[in-house]
Write a structure and sequence with these properties.
- With 435 residues, this protein is an alpha+beta fold.
- 24% of the residues lie in helices and 24% in strands.
- It contains 11 helices and 18 strands.
- It has a 7-stranded mixed β-sheet. A 6-stranded mixed β-sheet has the order 1-6-7-8-3-16, with helices on one face.
- The longest helix has 16 residues.
Length: 435
């Protein structure tokens, strides 16, 4: 939640829309997969900060003009949701466009980043959701905020039903290619016409939902679920040197992979401070290497696994928790898809935060977006619509060519119930020297 003292930091807000330069076609409908629909209550919010040199000469006209060509390649992001006669959500690819927000800020980018307040991200990126009027609800928002120093931030609000964080980063990176006149000659996905008649669900098959998802009360056409407590985001920058030390502390050498190392630390630390219950089951989300094609939008290439501990995590040796994460993760994608299919795509689920959830974004190309040949000075991502168990995101802290600690360290962003935050920070500092 952004405090009232900070609400005036961003002002002079203007709205507009941009769609594909070419008409997509008549009666073009995209049918989201079962995995897409399992993610429909989640949203990605990313903010890219660029220096004044990177955006020199970029007027609003120059920012928008390449978008018409860019969105020809991503026509489905410009559509609006409808429902088939069975109630299953479908995207009508009607070229309604993405929503553009223009805003100003009287702080410099350095001043903004020095505040180190993850909740302020919500001022630089739209927090809109899909619904409650599906035919009029954009799936993508782009917010361009001009800072006092001449720099700029680009906020991407992305409905997760379109694709995962890797899809979102590919999407925005291609806008940078459009700015540099380097787009592929042909769209990645060519429009196709589909029937809006979908076979009815086979609800006679009774089965238990997989551990990785939580069935929530029906939300109708307002695609968000309420939390039982206030959630608070905060971040840590862990350098490459720190990460090596943490790996050695867990296993005595650098054997535990960086992501599982950080999962171990945060799982055990959260288990020690959680007043409600010790999380025995966690969900782990990773990119499946070699299974995605650059530019395609999909949720199916993200491996969603569960790990269940049959011992007390808070009392265990860290190396035992790490071994559990590395060796005993169970891929539940097929079970998730089956659960959605059984209900014909009309039921409502959450995945992020259904259990304590760890999301590996190490390989996401967050610094692949370039303006005037320059990469962002900083990128941050959050997930909205998560459950009360919370989420831990592990992402790259900077461009790969910016030095060892920047390219090999990690940014860890934690979103937890606010009553756990101070105790967790104290636990991490005391036990792991993370601050």
């Amino acid at each position: 939640m952004v405090s009232s003292d900070h609400l005036n930091l961003v002002y002079d807000i203007k709205l507009s829309s941009v769609g594909p330069g070419h008409v997509t076609g008549s009666d073009v409908v995209h049918e989201p997969s079962n995995m897409d629909l399992a993610m429909k209550l989640h949203y990605l919010r990313g903010v890219y900060f660029f220096s004044s040199e990177a955006v020199q000469g970029l007027t609003v006209y120059r920012i928008k003009e390449p978008m018409f060509t860019w969105l020809n390649h991503y026509y489905r992001t410009c559509g609006r949701f409808r429902r088939s006669n069975s109630g299953r959500p479908l995207i009508k690819c009607n070229d309604c466009g993405v929503r553009i927000i223009e805003a100003k800020c009287d702080k410099t980018i350095d001043e903004w980043l020095e505040m180190k307040d993850s909740s302020l991200t919500k001022l630089l990126v739209s927090n809109h959701i899909v619904g409650p009027e599906l035919p009029f609800s954009p799936l993508v928002f782009l917010q361009v905020t001009s800072f006092k120093c001449g720099g700029m931030s680009l906020g991407l609000s992305w409905a997760h039903v379109l694709g995962d964080a890797f899809s979102a980063s590919d999407f925005i990176n291609m806008w940078g290619q459009a700015m540099a006149n380097q787009l592929p000659q042909h769209p990645v996905d060519l429009p196709k016409s589909f029937s809006m008649l979908v076979k009815p669900a086979n609800r006679s098959q009774l089965a238990t939902d997989p551990l990785s998802i939580k069935r929530v009360d029906p939300v109708g056409d307002n695609w968000i679920t309420a939390n039982n407590c206030k959630m608070e985001p905060f971040s840590f920058h862990i350098t490459a040197t720190q990460l090596t030390q943490l790996q050695a502390k867990i296993s005595g050498h650098k054997a535990t992979p960086p992501f599982e190392c950080l999962c171990t630390i945060f799982w055990q630390s959260i288990a020690r401070v959680c007043s409600r219950h010790e999380p025995e089951i966690v969900t782990v989300c990773k990119n499946e290497r070699g299974s995605r094609r650059t530019g395609t939008l999909s949720n199916s290439a993200q491996i969603i696994s569960t790990v269940k501990a049959d011992f007390s995590v808070k009392e265990a040796k860290p190396k035992d928790v790490a071994a559990l994460l590395v060796e005993h993760a169970v891929d539940e994608r097929g079970l998730i898809e089956s659960a959605v299919e059984r209900d014909g795509g009309v039921s409502d689920f959450i995945i992020y935060g259904a259990n304590l959830t760890f999301v590996n974004l190490e390989e996401a190309s967050f610094y692949g977006l370039e303006l005037n040949g320059q990469k962002p000075v900083h990128v941050s991502y959050l997930i909205d619509g998560i459950g009360d168990e919370g989420v831990v995101l592990v992402a790259p802290p900077g461009p790969k060519d910016s030095g060892k600690d920047s390219s090999e360290g990690k940014i860890v962003t934690v979103i937890l119930p606010e009553d756990q935050v101070m105790e967790l920070k104290s636990e991490l500092k005391r036990e792991w020297s993370i601050a």
